[in-house]
Amino acid sequence: MVTQTKVQKEMFKPTTKLLDAYAQLPWLIPQDKRSFGDFIDHLYFTFYESAGKDNLRFLTKHGGVLDENLDGDFIWCIKHLRNKWLRHDADHGKETDIRKSWKDLSDKFKWLGLNHTPIKEEHFRKLHRSLLKEAESFLEKILEKLIP
User: Fold this and answer.
1) Which of 36, 90, 91, 101 is deepest in the core (most CB within 10 A)?
2) What is the reported pLDDT for 68?
3) Pick from 67, 138, 79: nearest CA to 104
4) 8 closest CA partner among 51, 72, 46
5) Cβ partners under 8 Å of residue 88, min gap 6
6) Pairwise CA distance, residues 50 & 48, whole Å
7) Tens digit of each residue's pLDDT (9 = 90 or more) over 111-133
8) For residue 52, what are the CA distances in angstroms to 11, 32, 71, 106?
């Protein structure tokens, strides 16, 4: 994986968590919410935390090559699935925030090709395949912009 731009070093910093994610991802095939949560955690550490989380190094505003509004769907999907459904409580907060969280989750599921919250193994496998395709597309966008 290309990890550097001309402007700055290491777009994706090779932390212990990132290396663990690299080791675990090829063997992880989600079958339920718990294993899907593990999968999302690894994607989160790979594409979000290793890239600087609050100052994502792949974004143009932080010296990267991707535009947040045009190229960020994959990253925001991972973050939202993890933070609003899998690892935190979407039903926490003000009523308007709760409604927005569930609406956003519904939109993420639809974006990944599922019209409802996953409950069966086949649903989690569909989300898994969709996210892997989106990860590939995301990395291709970075490469296209790095290699003229």
Assistant:
1) 36
2) 82
3) 79
4) 51
5) 82
6) 6
7) 999 999 999 999 999 999 999 99
8) 8, 29, 17, 27
